[in-house]
Amino acid sequence: MKKLLIANFKMNENPSETKLYFTKFVAGFSGERADVIICPSYVSLPLASFLTANSAVKLGAQNVSDEDAGAFTGEVSAKMLKSVGAEYVIVGHSERRNKFKESDKLINKKIKTSLKAGLKCILCVGEGALDKNVGKSQEVIRKQLEEGLRGLYENELESVVIAYEPTWAIGTGNNASVKEVEQAAKVIRKVVYENFSEKASRDIQVIYGGSLNERNAPALLNTPGIDGGLFGGISLDYSAFLNIANSIK
Ligand code: PGA
Question: Which pTM value belongs to this model?
C-alpha cells in the first residue's frame, strides 16, 4: 500500500506563496509512491483547490468549528471547508490542545461534526515531555483516543486517520525513535481493537509526525504498524517534501 504523507503548513505561506508552492509541487508529484494531502491556511484553500484539480494531491484544513453554522464569529464550518475543496481536516493537533486549550470533548465534537459534513479527520494524539518522563505515554495516548473517538460508529473509522505526534518531537528536531513509534502504533491499534474491533484495529491508518525530514522519514515511515507521516516544518520546503513524496518506499 502507498504511504500517506500529510503536509501541515501551520500559520505559514500566504496565498501568493501557496500558489507558487502548489504549482511546482503538482508539476513534480508522480503520485506513484505516496498519497499526499496538503493542509494550507484556510485563506489559501480555494486557490489550492483550483491548482490541484485534476492532480493526485488532496487538500486538508488545519482546524474546523465544532458547530454546524450560526453565530460563531471567526469560526469556519466543516461544510464551508468541503465547499472550497478540503477533503480532510486535522483535529486535536497538540498546538490546538496546548495553545488554544482544546479539550478531548471539543475534539470529539469537531470529529463528529466534520464526519457528518463528509470531511475525513486526521486525529492527532501524543504525550508531552512530562508524561514521557513519568512513564505515562501510553495512558495519555489511550485517553486522547478513547475520548476523541467516543460514540463513533465503526464504519466511520474508515474516514479517520490517527497521527501519533508526541509533543516533545514537534518542531524540536528531536524525532521519536523507530522503537518508540512502533510501540505507540501498537498502543493505538490496541485501543481501537478494544473499543471497536479487530478489523478496525488492522484497517485504521496510523501515521507518525514530529521533526520528520528527508533523512529520517524512510526509516520512521516504514516502522511496523505505521502507514505514513505528518510533516510540519520540512513540508514548507517544496523540493524536500516533493523528494520524500516521490521516493518513499
Ligand atoms: P514538525 O511538525 O514536522 O515541524 O515537527 C509536525 C506537526 O506539527 O504536525
Answer: 0.98
139 is catalytic: no
Closest CA to 92 of 75, 80, 104: 104
Q: Which atom of ligand 1 lies nearest, measured to the CA of 213?
A: 3
Is the distance from the beta carbon of residue 8 to the nearest atom of ligand 1 less than 6 Å?
Answer: yes
Using a 6 Å cutoff on CB, does residue 170 contact ligand 1? yes
Cα 45 to Cα 154: distance, rounded to the nearest angstrom: 30
Whole-angstrom Cα distance, residue 84 to residue 221? 30
Residue 95's identity, in one-letter code, is E
User: Given 13, 93, 95, 156, which residue is catalytic?
Assistant: 93
SS3 state at 234: helix
What pLDDT tens digit does each residue of the chain (249 aa) get? 899 999 999 999 999 999 999 999 999 999 999 999 999 999 999 999 999 999 999 999 999 999 999 999 999 999 999 999 999 999 999 999 999 999 999 999 999 999 999 999 999 999 999 999 999 999 999 999 999 999 999 999 999 999 999 999 999 999 999 999 999 999 999 999 999 999 999 999 999 999 999 999 999 999 999 999 999 999 999 999 999 999 998
Residue 6 CA: nearest ligand 1 atom is: 9
| Ramachandran assignment for 240, one of left (phi > 0), alpha (psi -120 to 50 degrees), beta (any other) | alpha
Measure the CA–CA gap between 67 and 73, rounded to whole angstroms.
Answer: 11
Task: Spot the catalytic one: 13, 95, 102, 165.
Answer: 165
